[in-house]
Amino acid sequence: MQLNGFTILMTLILCYSNVLSQFKPNDTALYAAYPIINQQAVKLIGDSIAFQEFASKLHSFTTANHPVFHVLHIGDSHVQAGFFTEPIRELFSSIYGYGGPGVVFPYQVAKTNGPPGFSSSSDYTWTAKRNVKYNIPLPTGLCGHTIYSTNPSASFNIRFNEDSSYNRIRNLTIFHSSRDTNFNYIVTGDDSIIAYMDSYFQDIRATRFIIGKDDSRIRVSNNKTDSKQVSSTKTGMYCNNGNSNTAITSVIGVNGARYNDYMSSDWFIEQVSLVAPQLIILSLGTNESFEYNKLNLTQFASTIDSMVSRLKNLPSMPIILLTTPPAVCRSKRVSKRIIYIPNTYTALVRQVILDQAAKNHVLSFDLYEAMGGEKSMKWWALKHMTDKRQIHFTKPAYRISGSLLASALARLMENQK
Are 121 and 157 in contact (CB under 8 A)? Predict the structure, then answer.
């Protein structure tokens, strides 16, 4: 029996309702344990245009054959470790099924932290760059991170957790510098070549491989095949398991990043386009709040406006969702002591983000208010759920943050009936 679009949509709405029980906005146990949470703020904010675009995106995905519903979470250090994003991945995978790990980068090779699910290693030395380091003369792209080597024999390993479904990969796209000077690549498993280049995929700064064997570890090796090839500059990778009508939730996070750092990245927009996101979540603003009186709010608003506009106009026509930063603290010297007080500039940054979301008719989520508002970080610190500087949450608190956002998303999806 062939199901029509309405029947498929109603079936998925029932699925949304089941998933919503896992991410309920009125979860009394959560609110009883953490009364600082502002229950009224656990919602997505938007006008009729933003909500209609979200509904249309869901409807088009459920009534047509799409390869994957790709959720791309872009941010700063609140996002890079991946804990904030995990509940969002769980939400979409529960609804659509798991489509693969998505965006991957060898973070440990670059000597930084990354999200759970995979790790990296290398016997070679690579030069690393983040998009916030303007003094290092290397380009950045998809991940906001880059690794570089002139050694034609250099390689690195990506090992996926044995107990996760990450390790079933059928397609791997490597993002790099221009083909004419960049080394080619060979992709191997534990004991043999497991992938071949997809000759139908043509892009000057990306190479796609088709993988024919399950393996918990892949090795990406440089392969010099032309005298013009002088180095390897990798800006990210994208993996999926080849299953259609599934969901992938990717993390792109850079410690210290601001909106302007992504907009200044050489190939960021170009390479984001190639991973065809359906929903882009932008969680930035914390680092702008530490610029204090040096921050030009008018210029900051213009940067957000430009980034939102360029992302909205990608070929995949993604839904854009802006989140406000948490109410972080800043240090202050009192006599010979360092104390931590609420960073009042965060409230200014928050308002600019909300205003730009409204101006551009995109969705927003006010994490600042949902987690308790202006002085809330002091409360979370007393619960031992922040770092010493009261800027970052602990893993459990990041999961709470992500669960609140997932709750808001699930509620909106359920309300599309």
Answer: yes
pTM passes above 0.85: yes
8 A C-beta contact, residue 178 and residue 219: no
> In angstroms, rounded to a whole number, what is the distance separating the alpha carbons of residues 81 and 48?
34
Instruction: State the 10-residue block means of pLDDT for the chain, 417 residues long.
Output: 38 50 62 94 96 90 80 98 96 92 97 94 97 96 98 95 68 95 93 86 93 86 96 97 92 98 96 97 98 93 98 97 98 91 96 98 98 97 97 97 96 78
| Sequence-separated (6 or more) residues with CB below 8 Å from residue 15 | 94, 95
Rg (CA), the chain: 21
Half-sphere exposure of 264 (CA within 13 A, CB side): 11
Q: Are 31 and 404 in contact (CB under 8 A)?
A: no
Dihedral sign computed on CA atoms, order 326, 115, 185, 167: negative
Q: Which helix (DSSP H) or strand (DSSP E) does residue 253 occupy?
A: strand 246-253
